[in-house]
Amino acid sequence: FVSVQLVSRAVQQIWRTPQSICATRGYLHACRSFSSNEVKSAVTPAEITTTPIPEITDAFPHLQTHESIHKFSLEQPDEFWGRLARSRLEWQKEFQVVRDHDMEKSAFRWFPDGQLNVSVNCVDRHARQHPDRVALLWEKDEPGQEERVTYRELQELVCRMGNVLLECGVKRGDRVALYMPVMPLSVAAMLACARIGAIHSVVFAGFSAEALASRVQDAGAETVITADEAVRGGKVIKLKQVVDAAVAKCPTVRQVLVASRTGAQVNMGPKDISLEQVLSSASTECPPAVQNAEDLLFLLYTSGSTGSPKGVAHTTAGYLLYASVTHKHVFDYRDGDIFGCVADIGWITGHSYVVYGPLANGATTLLYESTPTYPDPGRYWETVSRLGLTHFYCAPTALRLLLRYGDDWVLRHDRSSLRVLGCVGEPLNQEAWHWFHGVVGDGRCDLTDTWWQTETGGIMISPRPSAPGAHINAGMPMRPMFGVLPVLCDPSGKVVEGKRVDGALCLGSIWPGISRTIYGDHKRFIDTYFAPFPGHYFSGDGAYRDEEGFYHITGRMDDVINVTGHRLGTAEVEDAMTEHPEVSETAVVGFPHPVKGEAVFAFIVLKEELESSQENIVADLKKLVRSQIAGYAVPDEIMVCPGLPKTRSGKILRRILRKVAAGQPDELGDISTLADPTIVQTIVNIYNTQH
Ligand code: 6R9
Predict the structure, then answer these.
(1) In Å, how far are 31, 75, 391, 433 from 556, measured between CA atoms?
(2) Measured in angstroms, how far is the CA atom of residue 307 from the centroid of ligand 1?
(3) What is the ipTM of this complex?
(4) pTM of the predicted model, to two decimals?
(5) 49-53: which pairs have CB atoms within 8 A and are 24 or more residues apart?
(6) Distance CA 56, CA 77 (A)
(7) How many whole angstroms separate alpha carbon 586 and alpha carbon 574?
(8) Mutate to test the pocket of ligand 1, among 541, 559, 560, 598 (most ligand atoms within 8 A of CB)
(9) Which among 112, 39, 46 is positioned nearest to 82, based on CA atoms?
């Protein structure tokens, strides 16, 4: 369905060999492990339990191990997912059809004739069963001020919020943008959208007004929900001011609902509505909208290698089922557990493992408003101890930061409640893995390194669930989840079979949680994920399959970098910087950073006649990136150079710039295709004088 030419061009564009990725990410275990025969550390926890899957094992008693259930899920997907969908979800109308996929059009439908409401599945049915169980455990920025919201209270809040949205004229299928702190009202707002059939688009509250405006416009949102201010790590972020600046650029926005987080006085204009005021008079009953399984649940904008951030679209039943199944079986979630995922709700991890997965399973889920180091580097573990968390799911960058402060910050807090640790967002290097497992988990907790993406909706590869007695290898996600078939492809598009092989990490099966489209641009969806390796979903990552058949992630193969676990397109940073009137050209690459994972390195070429000094321009550029995108996108290094290494056809050779930024000028490789090979030496000389 795509021409051979298009495929080979796409493959060329995305292909960087795992070796070259490894060179730029040399400190990662995954890379080291397949360049040497180093013995990996295999840990066998005291007891590895396989959470029973009664839906499957009752009917098929011979299926007991993860491997056998996994095989069954791929061979009989209708049977497998049909059973789980019936037992795990409450349907308004039962489905007859499990899957309806058109690979030619990259159109995937799960349970297409079924109907269910996500808010009923996440709230009402648990409020019926155990109304007083805590649903949301809100760990506020200041330690010791936690608040609890029970399932009964959450149901009331969701209904009030749903009625407020209805009164504001929000209809089924309308997009509602959320720019909010991590607080119960934000979760209620997400679920209220689901209740009335509206589509939420949560924008991380650290994004700039520009970034918010472009997301609101792309989604055509008419309603924005925000708060007066957010507080994080003792610092106040003036959310409402950012929203005001964004809304000024968004003619579609009719109304802004403003929640109170700090109670600060904020400017209220004609479009602004005080949320607390309207909530207090709203009814606590709001009949759930009848939702088709394939109606959109939410959009979440994420960075790609080219163009502006894309609105990754997820639908109702398949997404919820996948979030629920993975939350249960990857984390071995059991009734009564207190599940702690410290991600912000503005990221997919917050959607799937703070909100939808845990609530679908009737869990008590943590809402963590603070940072890893506020008020001190023991905050995470003090929270674990005070709240009795059984699970702790976080990002490798936070662990790398915390381990530098020493073990004492961990050891002084009681962590005996913990049973399962997890990590997501970037490769978990050996040092951080051992620290997390040995120091935080006392060597007795399971540690699950989970690989997945905004587009996959839920966890795809992770060590658990494992066969009884199976081991966990340090620093790799290892085993595909149910329904997931990892496939490695070589640059020509051929599938690479066997063990001890690497390639582009693709998925050869379609699972219920897969994103259905990029909002408003299905062609981009096909071109990005399905055109590069026809018949497969391409993740953008590279992977290695080791001698045991387990998967290691080697890193991105495209122009996406991963800064503190946040995906960032180099093109986005370049676009922001080229807005500066004195900049003529820019090229942005990632380079290894001991804490952030990767940091941003910008090479810039200035115009001939300058009015400002170089220092001022560099300072302006940092401000520009902060205001156009977000703080985390600001380059650690900005290097002014007289030109960029380009091919004769004018393509910037980023491969060379990556080596320079990584401090490896001796490994530049072939530079003969450059229009002007001397520019490379000039750039290396400038780098050397500055380092
Ligand atoms: C959930 C999430 C996705 C990208 C992904 C990959 C990187 C995520 C990882 C990992 C190595 C892991 N990534 N988990 N790399 N090991 N366990 O992070 O989604 O923000 O869309 O990022 O993050 O590069 O492609 P998202």
Answers:
(1) 13, 30, 28, 20
(2) 20
(3) 1.00
(4) 0.90
(5) 49/332, 49/468, 50/465, 50/466, 50/467, 50/468, 51/328, 51/329, 51/332, 51/333, 51/334, 51/465, 53/84, 53/329
(6) 12
(7) 6
(8) 541
(9) 112
CA 221 – CA 66 distance, rounded (Å): 43
Query: Nearest Cα to 645, choosing from 634, 661, 633?
Result: 661
Assigned token pair, 288: 């759930």
Q: What residues does 553 pair with on adjacent strands?
A: 543
Strands 223-227 and 310-315: unpaired
Burial 635-667 (b: 16+ CB within 10 A, else e): beebbbbebbbbeeeeebbbbbbbbbbbeebee
pLDDT, residue 50, reads 58
Position 444, amino acid: R
In this structure, are strands 472-473 and 42-43 parallel, antiparallel, or unpaired?
A: antiparallel
Tokens 């900049």: give the residue: 583
CA distance 691 to 688: 5
Distance CA 221, CA 134 (A): 32
Cβ partners under 8 Å of residue 422, min gap 6: 330, 331, 341, 391, 392, 393, 394, 447, 448, 449, 450, 462
Q: What are the structure tokens assigned to 101, written together?
A: 């996929």
DSSP letter for each residue of 650-684: --B-HHHHHHHHTT-GGG----TTBS-THHHHHHH
Distance 488 CA to ligand 1 centre (A): 17
Distance 453 CA to ligand 1 centre (A): 5
- Residue 122's Cα: distance from chain center in Å? 21
Mean pLDDT by 10 residues, the chain (691 residues): 40 41 32 34 48 86 88 97 98 98 96 98 98 98 97 98 98 98 98 98 96 97 98 97 98 97 97 97 98 98 85 98 96 95 97 98 98 97 98 95 95 97 92 95 94 98 71 90 97 95 97 98 97 96 95 90 91 91 93 94 92 93 96 96 86 89 88 85 94 91
H-helix or E-strand spanning residue 19: helix 18-24
The type of residue at 576 is A
Residues in the chain: 691
Q: Is the CB of 451 under 6 A from ligand 1?
A: yes
d(CA 187, CA 13): 39
How close is the Cα of 61 to the center of ligand 1, in Å? 35
Our answer on whether the CB atom of 124 is closer than 6 Å to any ligand 1 atom is no
